[in-house]
Design a protein that fits this description.
mainly alpha, 73% helix, 0% strand, elongated, single chain
Length: 271
């Protein structure tokens, strides 16, 4: 006290001003801390950011909520919501990891079909990127790893949760993916034909026919199979396949043949 008195009125004025600056700051920190102590309030903030399409902010809040309150009821819903936020933010790997974690930890959750659907959708929309579309890259020649994963996820929704709100859309996307996978098998079979590897070409064509029956690529698969059997002098198999072709594509049949050594070829059926 004696020190304060000796310091004079200027020192007292400085102390008072410092107190006015510090106290509001403490109050603000306490207010923020108070909001973070209620998981429901934190979830509401994250959900609002997600609705407003501010996915980066939503992800940060959801991650903070899940880290701080791992056993809260809101955290369980947050683990589902954050998958969507990752997907919309273009963080594909994080979306897939979050979906896998949710499916593994919540096998009986009433909305697990949504997690499977988002997982399939994430891989589905990674198929071609902007540059690939711009330069018209032939995706048929690329191993369709993501297409297979997406197909499997959508297939899970359709087969295990047929009454799901997402089953119809998942089924439509499966048709596209099925044709994409069939086209890849044909691209590989063409590659083998161009190099005279007829055994390998026939095997790829058979995979296309057996696994993707009904896809547009099946017709060319039959053509490649006939060409390969003819080149290997397997006349009986070639005739059986030719009959199958004519039964399904009689209007397209022709009596012409094209040299098997051509890389870009149009196959015609012999009589």
């Amino acid at each position: 006290m004696r020190a304060l008195r000796s310091a004079g009125p200027l020192a007292l004025l400085f102390i008072c001003l410092a107190a006015l600056v510090v106290l509001p700051g403490c109050k603000t920190r306490e207010g923020k801390e108070g909001k973070m102590t209620d998981p429901a309030v934190v979830y509401e903030r994250a959900h609002r950011a997600m609705i407003q399409a501010d996915y980066a902010t939503a992800i940060k809040i959801y991650e903070a909520l899940m880290a701080r309150y791992p056993f809260a009821a809101e955290t369980r819903q947050s683990r589902l919501d954050v998958i969507y936020c990752y997907y919309k933010a273009g963080e594909s790997e994080s979306a897939i990891d979050a979906a896998d974690t949710f499916i593994r930890e919540n096998p009986t959750h009433p909305r697990i079909d949504y997690a499977w659907y988002l997982k399939g959708l994430t891989d589905f929309e990674r198929l071609p990127n902007f540059l690939e579309r711009w330069f018209r890259v032939d995706l048929d020649q690329r191993p369709p790893t993501q297409a297979r994963r997406s197909f499997t996820s959508f297939q899970t929704v359709v087969e295990q949760y047929p009454n799901s709100d997402y089953a119809h859309d998942a089924r439509r996307r499966m048709v596209y993916l099925r044709n994409r996978l069939a086209d890849y098998e044909i691209a590989v079979a063409r590659y083998y034909v161009g190099r005279g590897a007829y055994v390998a070409a026939a095997q790829r064509a058979k995979v296309c026919i057996e696994e993707f029956d009904g896809s547009p690529a099946v017709r060319e698969a039959l053509e490649i199979l006939i060409l390969s059997y003819d080149a290997m002098d397997l006349k009986e198999l070639a005739n059986q396949t030719r009959q199958m072709y004519r039964a399904n594509y009689d209007a397209e049949a022709s009596d012409k043949k094209t040299s098997v050594k051509r890389k870009w070829y149009k196959l015609w059926l012999s009589s």
